[in-house]
Amino acid sequence: MNLADLKILEAIRKRLESVPGVRMARLAWTNEPVEVPLSRLVAAVVEPAGVETLTWPDVSVGRYHLLRWRVRIMDRAMPGTRAFEALVGVAEACRDAIAAEPTLGSLAADGPPVPGDGDLLPAVGATRIAALRLGELSAGRPTALVLAGASGYWVETQAGDAALDDEALFGSGPHVVAVGSPVRRVKDQPFIGLAGGLALDLGEGPREIVQTGVLSAASAEALATAEAALEIFIDGRAYTLTAPDGNDYPHCRMERFERLGPPQVGTAWHQPYRITYRQLLR
């Protein structure tokens, strides 16, 4: 954990503090036993639950820091009672208060999904929240409803962007360019009755260049516009591709623009993609 993580936890605490029915909202360490006076129930306790570093699938640039957190909403209420139903209502209001401003005052930003974790929604959101669950019941302790979530931010972003004929089309999200091996065209000419044959050098052949990345836009309409701007280049003509590291690859023909699954939506719209170029001449 670092100072930025503590600011996120404090921003969540402040939002819970303003929820009707919550009499106390405080921070605690992970799994710290918290003693709450009866006069301060219902109480909301915010605690960290771990951190992890993420990148978009198949796009090994940038570094996204995801802080997992947990909120315990506590009261003296047993399941099946009206008091418990009231506690559920307060817990749902706590969830809605956090979800209403997922960036937490610009402290958090959309980022890559967590592999294999379908509980946190939206999967790429600045703040992601799981369903409410009932905490472990213990004699003499308040009943707790647990709200698990995560908020993240970019700690390292891409240094440069790719371009086609100096048009900056890819800067909305991270992307990588993988340049394939040069190809030498050779024709083997056998001769009947003779061992071996003749190898005819036909010169250099085209090589494949693959770009993988994510397009991001503020709305579905803006994302469709960004995609259309790329598809215009699938016209059979050759262009100069500039890679993020600044190297130029002339005579590149865009052959395919593939959407890798449906758009993913957080505070913005994100479309993972793959573009295949063929460099006709070096």
What can you see in these coordinates?
This protein is of the alpha+beta class. The protein has two domains: about 5-155, Phage tail protein-like (STM4215-like), CATH 3.30.2000; about 165-280, Elongation Factor Tu (Ef-tu), domain 3 (Beta Barrel), CATH 2.40.30. The chain has helices spanning about 5-15, 80-100, 220-230, and strands at about 25, 45-55, 65-75, 125-130, 135, 145-155, 165, 175-180, 185-190, 195-205, 205-215, 240, 250-260, 265, 270-280. The strands form three sheets. Strands 7, 8, 11, 12, 13, 14 and 15 form a seven-stranded antiparallel β-sheet that branches. Strands 1, 2, 3, 4, 5 and 6 form a six-stranded mixed β-sheet that branches. A two-stranded antiparallel sheet has the order 9-10. The protein is elongated and about 100 Å long. The two termini are about 50 Å apart.
